[in-house]
């Protein structure tokens, strides 16, 4: 049965069929390298591998040691659209560089919010790129502006630059530590000075950051897949509450926060990270297949074929198929060559183009009882479209299986989630959700099942091993800004990065 909830009809236009339109969104990826003759080219390649973490904008800042100047290129769009030509890379001179790919949470991407952000401090220039979201950025920004600070963006990352600039410590790294000790929330940072590449990870390790090595030079990246694309060697994960400082003298590790158990974001394993990445020592692909096995044990359906919702549902669907013995079929085909700017001038053309990106493989589903496996269910509007597409292709029954627990709470750590009243699982019970999406049956992975798939025996309620607040409502940090703004105002006033 359904409980009262916000009107979802605005999101339910069946003429706009995009399976990516009702998913959780990660806001960015970061990459940096120090001391390499092709630093900016290496960063551009690393950002290509991290493109799945943000497609709205990309930027690179380099430091030219010969001219003693920072160079910056920040542009909206994909990495390949901005950083594939030799002329652009040539302008980014220097042996050290950092880069960023971004997904904006509200409105369009504006250039002033594209990272890395740069500022001249008393001790020299500082460029910062940030993955995550600060949950006290609005409070800090309000105090800074009251004291006369002039802000240039609506990004919470700029707060870090202001805090570092206002520190009275003599060295930039000390100023940077002062800034980190004043903020709360989730973050993985790469920063660049005229002498150092700096990496930092929040005290709970919510956002990922890894250290690699290429040709004897150290680099930092959001995921190991960015190391693989350039042939770099994985060294280790940056620890929670750790700063690493890379310079010509080598690498130095500094702890800026008290040691405490790590709580990495569980959605890195469910959805965000690339399947070929290893996050905190766990293969993302292996975890997702294990999730599929657990889902099959908990919620087996009598069916003829298992069909993944591409692309993120594929590993879990494979695990579900292997566990049940039900054949795996690609019942939905994704066209990877459809751009975001396809012109749809009239209603009739829009209706013709709704399946350009995803279409049913009628031969695989017609007359079949199918199990659809998706990674998560957010608003549910896309699930309605998927079920309808399968029925129109001739599926006899459609059994929906979700490879994660119900999402009942919004995120404040860098995941673009709607307000709670727009989360389907927060406003409907299981039967109400099934009726809403039109499936013959619906089931989610349980929280204990998710932890088993992660290789944990159980979830310790007093000290969970992962950040799983979207399922439990247990937020691991303070949420200071919630006292001065609504979740939507938080997104509008300080876009997550």
TrEMBL record:
<feature type="binding site">
    <location>
        <position position="374"/>
    </location>
    <ligand>
        <name>Mg(2+)</name>
    </ligand>
</feature>
<dbReference type="InterPro" id="IPR035584">
    <property type="entry name" value="PurF_N"/>
</dbReference>
<keyword id="KW-0460">Magnesium</keyword>
<keyword id="KW-0479">Metal-binding</keyword>
<keyword id="KW-0808">Transferase</keyword>
<feature type="domain" description="Glutamine amidotransferase type-2">
    <location>
        <begin position="28"/>
        <end position="249"/>
    </location>
</feature>
<feature type="binding site">
    <location>
        <position position="312"/>
    </location>
    <ligand>
        <name>Mg(2+)</name>
    </ligand>
</feature>
<keyword id="KW-0328">Glycosyltransferase</keyword>
<dbReference type="InterPro" id="IPR005854">
    <property type="entry name" value="PurF"/>
</dbReference>
<comment type="similarity">
    <text>In the C-terminal section; belongs to the purine/pyrimidine phosphoribosyltransferase family.</text>
</comment>
<comment type="pathway">
    <text>Purine metabolism; IMP biosynthesis via de novo pathway; N(1)-(5-phospho-D-ribosyl)glycinamide from 5-phospho-alpha-D-ribose 1-diphosphate: step 1/2.</text>
</comment>
<feature type="binding site">
    <location>
        <position position="375"/>
    </location>
    <ligand>
        <name>Mg(2+)</name>
    </ligand>
</feature>
<keyword id="KW-0315">Glutamine amidotransferase</keyword>
<dbReference type="InterPro" id="IPR029057">
    <property type="entry name" value="PRTase-like"/>
</dbReference>
<dbReference type="GO" id="GO:0004044">
    <property type="term" value="F:amidophosphoribosyltransferase activity"/>
</dbReference>
<dbReference type="Pfam" id="PF00156">
    <property type="entry name" value="Pribosyltran"/>
</dbReference>
<feature type="active site" description="Nucleophile">
    <location>
        <position position="28"/>
    </location>
</feature>
<dbReference type="InterPro" id="IPR017932">
    <property type="entry name" value="GATase_2_dom"/>
</dbReference>
<comment type="function">
    <text>Catalyzes the formation of phosphoribosylamine from phosphoribosylpyrophosphate (PRPP) and glutamine.</text>
</comment>
<protein>
    <recommendedName>
        <fullName>Amidophosphoribosyltransferase</fullName>
        <ecNumber>2.4.2.14</ecNumber>
    </recommendedName>
</protein>
<dbReference type="InterPro" id="IPR000836">
    <property type="entry name" value="PRTase_dom"/>
</dbReference>
<dbReference type="Pfam" id="PF13537">
    <property type="entry name" value="GATase_7"/>
</dbReference>
<keyword id="KW-0658">Purine biosynthesis</keyword>
<dbReference type="InterPro" id="IPR029055">
    <property type="entry name" value="Ntn_hydrolases_N"/>
</dbReference>
